[in-house]
Specification:
Layout: H1 24-27, E1 32-34, E2 50-54, H2 60-67, E3 73-77, H3 81-88, H4 96-105, E4 111-114, E5 125-128, H5 143-155, E6 161-164, H6 172-184, E7 193-196, E8 215-219, H7 222-232, E9 239-242, H8 245-276, H9 280-287, H10 311-321, H11 327-353, E10 362-366, H12 382-391, E11 395-399, E12 405-407, E13 413-415, E14 427-430, E15 448-450, E16 462-463
Parallel strand pairs: 2-3, 2-5, 3-4, 5-6, 6-7, 8-9, 10-11, 10-14, 14-15, 15-16
Antiparallel strand pairs: 1-9, 7-8, 12-13
Helix pairs in contact: 5-6, 8-9, 8-10, 8-11, 11-12
Amino acid sequence: MTAAAEPDASNGRHPLSLAVNGRERLLERLLVPFPVAQAHGSRGRSGPRSVAVVGLGYVGLPTALALHGRVPIVTGVDIDRERLRAIEGGDVDLCDGDRRRLAAATGDQGFRLTTAVAAVADHDAVIVCVPTPVDERRDPDLTALRAACDDVVAHARSGQTIILTSTSFVGTTRELLIEPFRRRGMTVGTDVHVAFSPERIDPGNPDHVQRETPRVVGGATPECASQAAQVVRQLTDSVFLVTSPEAAELTKLYENIFRAVSLALANEVADICGFLGLDPIEVTLAAGTKPYGFLGALPGPGVGGHCIPCDPHYLLWQLRRVGRTAPMIEQAMRGIDDRPDRVVRRAAEVLAEDGLAVAGAKVIVVGAGYKAGVRDLRESPALPILAGLAARGADIHYHDPLLPVITLPGGRVLVGERDPAAVDWDLVLIHVVHPGVDIGWAATCRRVLDATYLFDAAAHRRVV
C-alpha cells in the first residue's frame, strides 16, 4: 500500500492535524487514501449489500443508523433485549441528527434489530462495536468483546468482511479474529477478510459527524484492507489505509492518549493559573491563536466517558506485561484519576472561606453526565466527586434532567433534585452544563464552585 495522498483542496484544509511547523504539508503525502490506493484490482467494486452491526451502544447504534440508507440491509445485533426495546421506542441517548435517522429507520424493512448473533451469517459485512471498559484495577475487561468475536467467528461464512472497531490493546484483532479464523480452517484474506477500523464517534457533539470524520483501516492483508475500506467508506467520505490491524489499533490508542495527556496538562495549567491569579480559559484561548505548535484543551472537573479514562490503560497494561513503562502516560493518567479528589478538596476550601465545614454542608452538584448533552455516566467525575463529598460528611444532592437517578460507587442511589432553585444550598458545584438546561438559579447562590471554568453568570464564583 504505497500511494500519494492529494491535499483536501475542497475546503483548503489538509488532512493532517499536527503541532508541527508546516511539516504536515509534506508528511501528508505519506498517507494512503482509499480508493486511490485500492489493492489487488478491487477498484470499482460496489459496497456491501448488507451489514450487521454487533453491539448497539454509543458507537454501534450511530454506526448502524449512518449505514441505513447507504446499504440496502442493515441489521443491528445486541444480546440485551431491553436495549433493543429502548431503541424501538426511541428512548436512547442520541444527537438530533441520529434521532431523526432512528425515526426514519424504525419500521423500514431495510433496518432490522435482533438478539440472534447467528444473523451475522446472512450479511456481506460484520462490524463489531462492543464496549471495552477497564476493571477496578484499571486492567482491560474484554469479556463482552471476546464473547462477541467468538460468536462472529462461529457464525461467519466465506466471502464476508469482518471489521473490529472496539478500542483495545495492540494485537487484539489478531488474537480474537485472525487466529480463531485460522483455527477454524478459514484463510484470512481469501475465505474471509478481517480488519481493524477504530471508531471515531464523539457523543453529544454535533460538530463531529461521522460522514465528515476520516477513518483509518488496517487489514490483515492488502485485500482485507481494501474490502474493509469499501464498507467503512459507507460511513465517511475519507478513509486512510495503514499496513496492519496493529498499526490501526495503536493509532486509536495514540489518539486518546494524546487527548488524555492534553487534558491532564490543561488541568495542571489551570491550577497554576489559580496560584498566579490568572484565568486559564483566557490563557488557553490566547495560546490557541498560534497557528502552529499548539493543540490546546480546556480544563474541567475531570475526564469521563468510555474512551479517554480507559483506553490508555489498555496500552499501559500491555507494556507492564513485558516489563516496559511509559512514564509520561502513567503520570497523565494519575493526574486524570486524581482530578475529582482535587475538586472535592477545592470545595472544602470554598466552604472554609466562610467558616463552614464540609461535614453537614448542603451541597448540590450540577450535571452528573460525563460531558454536556449526554446521558452517559461511564467514568463520570461527578460520581467520585459526590462520593468524596459524602465521605467528608456533606449532605449531597445533584441536578441533571437527563439523569433522574444515579448510583454512586459503593451502591448508594441518589434521586436528582427537580427544583434546585427552591433550596438554600451551602455550595453549588458546577460539573456539567447541558445544552438547553437553565441553571441561572445557581448564580444567585451564595457559594458557587465552577469546575467548568465557564459559568461566568456568577460573578462571585470560585474555580477549581
